Amino acid sequence: MAPLDSYLQLRGKVDALCRQIESAHPEVISCQAGCDSCCQALTLFPVEAYALARAVAAQPEPIRQRLRARAGEAAKTGFCPLLEGGRCLLYDDRPIICRTHGLPILLREPEGNRVDFCPLNFVGCDSLSGNSLIDLDRLNQLLAAINHDFVARNLGSTAPPDRIPIGEALLLPWPPPTLVQASS
Question: N or C, where is the chain less crowded by C-beta within 10 Å?
Answer without folding.
Answer: C
